[in-house]
User: Fold Cholesterol oxidase from Tuber magnatum.
Amino acid sequence: MSQSPPERAPAVPNGPPHPPLPASTPQPPTQQTVHSLPHEILQADPAAFARGGVPLTENDYAHSSADTGAAENAKFPRISRPVPMMRVEYDVVVVGSGYGGAVAASRMARAGKSVCVLELGRERWPGEYPVGLLQATPEVHVSGNIGKNGEPVVDATAGDPTGLYHLVLGEGQNAFVANGLGGTSLLNANIFLPADKRTLQLPAWPQEISANPASLDIYYSRAAGVLQPVPYPDDFPQLKKLSLLERQAELMGQRDQFYRPPQTTSFTNGLNSSGIEMRASTLSGQDCTGVNDGSKGSVLMNYLPDAWNWGAELFCECEVRYVKRDPGNNAWLVLFAWHGDKRAKFENFHTELMWVKAREFVFLGAGALGTTEILLRSRDHGLKTSPEIGRGMSGNGDILSFGYNTDFEVNSIGRENPGNHPPVGPAITGVIDMRDTMPDVLDGYVLEEGAAPQALAKLLQGMLELMPGKVYPENFGLTEKLRHLFSRAEARLLGPYTPGGSVNRTQIYLIMSHDSNEATLTLENGKPYLRFLGVGRSAHVKELNEMLAKATSKIGGTLINSPFYSLLGEEEITVHPIGGANMSTDGTGRNGVTNHLGEVFTGASEDVHPGLVVVDGSVIPCALGVNPFATITALAERSVEGVAAKRQIGIDYTTRNPRLNLFEPPMRSFPLPRDMARAQHAISSAAGKSGIRFTEVMEGYLYIGDDIEDFQVAADAARGSSTSARFLLSVDSYSTQNLIERSDHAALATGTFACGALSRDPFMVLRGEVQFFSLDTDVADGKNLAYKLDLVSSDGKLLHFNGYKTIDSKMAFSASKTWKATTTLYVTLTRPDKTVVARGVLTIPWRNFVSELASFGQTGSTASGRIGATMDFLGYFASQTAGYFFSPLRALQYPTLTTNGYYQKQPPTEIVTLTAQDGIQTFMHVYTPESTPGSRQNNQNGINDRLPPILMIPGAAVDYQIFALPTIPTNAVDYFLARGHTIYIPTHRVGRTPLAKSTHTTFSARLDIKAALEHIRRESPSQVYVIAHCAGSIALGCGLLDGTIPASWLRGLTASQVFISPRFAKTNMLKARLPLPLPRVYSKVVGEYFDCTTSPTDALPQRLMNQLLRFYPVGSSAEMCNSAVCHRSELAFGRLWSHSGLNEATHANLGNFLGGTNMRCLMHLMRMGSSGYVMDDEFASLITGVGLRRLEGLKVLFVQGGKNAVYEPENTLTSYELLREEFGSAGVGRIVFENRGHLDCWMGKNAYTDVYPAVANHIDEVMSGGITGGAPGKS
Assistant:
């Protein structure tokens, strides 16, 4: 049996111990070393024992990378949170999630701080990274300049800014970085090599480091303890590219400088230092596009899960633009553009920024380019900084080249599914380290072999062969040329993986050396522009190219510059941009942007901004000549420890995480306030479901103040003062099913609201609600698109945004009105105490509507689910809108037995039976105040007299409920009881009572009113004040005119809508003058009684009538509705209200408030309404000289709805003028309520604001004896 090779320290390179990791590098006990595996497994093909995969095997959230279709069906964890779950304030905000940002997040979370991490890219786990070119292409984002060097900038922005691959086009050199949760660690080559001591002693470094480079060892060690780098194991399968590099080292006389460098790739299955289960590498070589086998030790696998487990909250697709102090100078504001929900589709996306507040620290870890850009933009927005920002940058001396078509198989093209093919290995497994061999440290370099990803496999040959400047082998005779020719043909015909083909024989080189550190980053037109000046150190680069040509020639290959060299304007590309916020050489802002701890200077002095710390590669002041991430991580560890110590903040470095299950809650979390708990429930309840999302921009004008109540008037006034407002709001329904089924049909809303008159910074909108077609309880028949948003300003001001779009019958059959209804938002801003701050109107312009459509997207794990969610939402939206567009065709609303929307009201004190002089018995509801004052002082009129009892007389087909309506907050009974009145409400014989089915008329109902007055007079010696409505007012007028009721019994009268001169409105007049009266037709066909209530089970004639009444003329489209009761009452009496005056509960329960009428009564009303005067049962006029004289001395207030569709509003004017002509102006008044109809003067949702007070004022005037009469008024 074969033996395992002897063990050696896994972190020590194979070769000379340069640069060794500190001896104290911890090896977590849970990490299994490769040499503990049986020999037969170690020598096997990786596919035989390491099928690949991802962490958390117990959850099985992704299959092995060898399983076809695994990614589509996989389940992946998410440690980042939806942006709607962001808090307004944290102790610490970390910008970026690469090495530096992840260190800051982890350490501050372990210090007990609340931490927010903002990352531009998206969260991806192994199994989700692109594989082929088609998958990778949409992930490419290009920015920078495509113009010629030295000429004006030509912007090159293209692609998705949150894409995984970011190519920055610069002048002199280009850069390639990664975006995603984990930053560039997701795509780098994993090589953990500390900077050599000579480099750290260069004058560019601050004295705190250059004077003692070894002081960094503890931080390298700490970083290694988390990242756990190990060399490629000797006993793993032999890698051809690694063997070839070793051969080249020998041929070049550099064997002693060759070794296998430590790398953060896992070669075993087991837990890592942070409690995440790693999988052994499948040796796929896919590092540059993302490794899907779960072996790559990016910070997504260690520092970030550790931060999450200790309570950090991570958010993706958040592009930080700049930072500044908050208005109180007590904290930092981090302003960012959220790319979620396709918000970038809108113009001004980068100016309408969201923000989060950091109470203690902001750590900038967005990478050298990202952090430098943020600091430059922050300076433009007023942050005081060193003038050195953006200077002294470096490409780390990167050179990418290819040894094409060598004499050896190299196998350097990645395979997602290695199977039984020869393994590629991690991207880099070997290094020729020439840093210690050069007398001048600036001539030192490292040469490493590499691997190209599968996505480039089919393109590589064409790209290489088209490159100019090839350097052929020294001995390139006929035989060699023929071999090259056949190898090229073989690759072209059989593919890039063909063992003898030219692509499979290509060695890939990556050099890191020292450049001139003269690159700059500037902002031009608000966008970053990168210039590399003197990047090549031409003599040094020439030497390196000669070395590469020699090394390639010795293996029979052709040296070719990077294929990107030609494609990118004959300029090199770096994957290691560093600098831009350089550490100062002398501890002041004159010679750097940050001090030795990364704290940002406030100018040229040594003063720093408290809590603003840079922790990424931008602080590195010169090229390192080696892979930089070990140094970036070590410096970040040092900075975080240093700034924490300054504030006496302790960090727990010792407590180890248990095995982490990323599908479960973290070990530590901060309490959720109520709104966050609701939002979290909404999101979690949508698990496994699909939803929709979109972004909306609305803009308009808000009037600051509460003195204008009309929205449009307020908006017009605000337009005149240029008080504009605008919101950029993303709406997320994580489950369309939940949205449709919820009673409020709500989705989460996140974004910003801007109004310069209220705050210089945008208000944040977090966890707001947009309700889709929620029932509008404030209107008779309509629905709302309601916006209920809590706004938080940067100075801590809290406001509530209440906006609604009204969807109702006004838009019927009108495309323009439908557009207006769905794009016009009526807005009220209030303080927490409900006082009004502003009102106005916001709208969606066409340009924003197009962008809104473009932003529409779906969420969900399956394509079918996403399609279904989209169809469900669009169907729901279309059906709700179409219902009102085709309003008359909606399903009819029939009466129900429910009491939905009822308020708790004071019950009647007693119900009295009345017996009229003709023997007819009716009943009367009596209400007495709960606490009746003996006397009352009216402050307005100076009255000190007992309040009169009030007799309220309802009209035909209704009863006491029109005054004691249970569906409005304050009805007439509530209002007048609160004043101290005792109230009597009879239901007379033509009201809502079985007696109405007989042949009684309004004229005979006067006897019931007399009986009511007699009852009251027996109980109270004082005169009665009477409020009489419609048929009740007519009946009272009949009784007064014919002497049945003495006017002396009345202290005063409010006659509502009609009195003694009834004259129908237009539609009723047409019906009354038909040659064949409708009551006669109805009595012959159906019967003598017409009931306003109905049901779907009524007899066929009634059901047919209900359908025909859909199209009954109602006036404007605003009066359309689907209530069968409303339709039928309109047929009998005319439209009884302006729908705008009723609320939904009243309109929905009309069947509980309306009765019917007999045909004789209806005919009597029609004769009076068409003639213009009251009549007895024989149709004789009661307007006689004797009758009118009986009204002398009666104090009357006529209350009239200006939009009355039962009686012409002028009918009360006729009665008013008649009394004034007869008796003079004293004691007679009239008020017209322009926007009210008939019954809504009493049943209206807000009648207590105008009608009731007007009547109360009349009562007070009557009681004070101060009535002198007055001209008709309006209200």
